[in-house]
Design a protein that fits this description.
By secondary structure, the protein is α+β, with helices and mostly antiparallel strands. 42% of the residues lie in helices and 18% in strands. It has 9 helices and 8 strands. Strand 1 and strand 2 form a beta hairpin. The longest helix is centred in the C-terminal third of the chain and has 21 residues, at 241-261. It is globular, with a radius of gyration of 21 Å. The protein starts with 18 loop residues before the first helix and ends in a 12-residue tail after the last helix.
Amino acid sequence: MRLMRDEPTADEAPARLVPAVDRAVRLLDALRADRQPHGISELARDLGLNKATVRDILLTLNHHGLVERDAATTRFRLGYGLYAYASALGEGSDLTAVARPFLRRLVERSGETALLGLLDGERILIVDKEEPPSDLKISAPVGRRLPLYAGAFGKVLLAALETARLERLLADRPPPVFTARSVADPAAYRAALGLVRQQGYAVDDEEYLDGVRAVSAPIHGADGSTLAALTAVGFSTRIGADKLTTLIAAVVDTAEQVSLRLGARPGNGRGRE
């Protein structure tokens, strides 16, 4: 049984809006209108709302990943957590709609789990996935948030950050130690990100989870910006040196195919420093 939204009849009274919810939606609409970060005072003035109310609503939305707060400017923008809702609609997001068949093909080519992730504030949000039929596989549900420095995912997404923002991040929140193979030194991690930009992909050799290897490549938009990271992940016992080489080629090729369908030019974003 599906729940359907019925059209109101002429005799029904107008819907009684919940004030707090109505204000939250108005704030989201304001952030969506010009896609620029906004401050609390600016939003309160434009919408005719109390500053304290705006602040409380924005911080609540930030807690749930629906808006993102820039730590340096304290201004707010829409958060990538909204993609979790868009992806639930199937065709609700151009990114997930375009990437979906390519996730399936990557699983067929590699035999490993394929994940699509976005930078969501200070976490990585899984917005889509495709898993192989095998019982022995890595699984991550859509909507799961991973640590910012999580393996190959983190390398690809952080490599795309503006230099100033990356330097603030490395200074304020240096890479943690997840396993004995983790790159936790900020200088070494910075160098690893430079290699990611140069070669166009990242490898996680048991740096995030023991016994797990992964390969990630960026998905670019028409302007060359990194929209997401495409990752293939599996157990290191199955991904030896030979398979790792073929997995890199498959992931890079798949990410490029998705990027092209999102308007990117061939090779867009490769080799940038």
